[in-house]
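Quick question, first post here. What does this chain look like in 3D?
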Amino acid sequence: MLLFHREPSVRRTVAEVARALYLQDRAVTELLQSLCSARILACEDERYWYAPDETLVASVERLEQAYRENLVGVTNLIHDATQKSALRFADAFKWRKDS
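> Answer (accepted):
Ran it through. Tokens below.
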């Protein structure tokens, strides 16, 4: 998400994001789809770009600040052994019917 946030006009493929994050394409595909479902990214023609819902902009800004202030902690969250933390993080932005 921060990769896209820093360059909001750049449209990226799964392979480009995978290379930038040192992850496998399959994991990145799942992550990008989750970020699209969470209305943080948009996708068209297998390219993804930063397009957050207005209600999420402030949260993404706070994440950027947390990343700058605690690089190791945020990096560990994103790159844990199961690679599921980033997906759980993206899920936190999804609107729930029961919320």
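The chain has six helices and two strands.
Residues 25-37 form the longest helix (13 residues).
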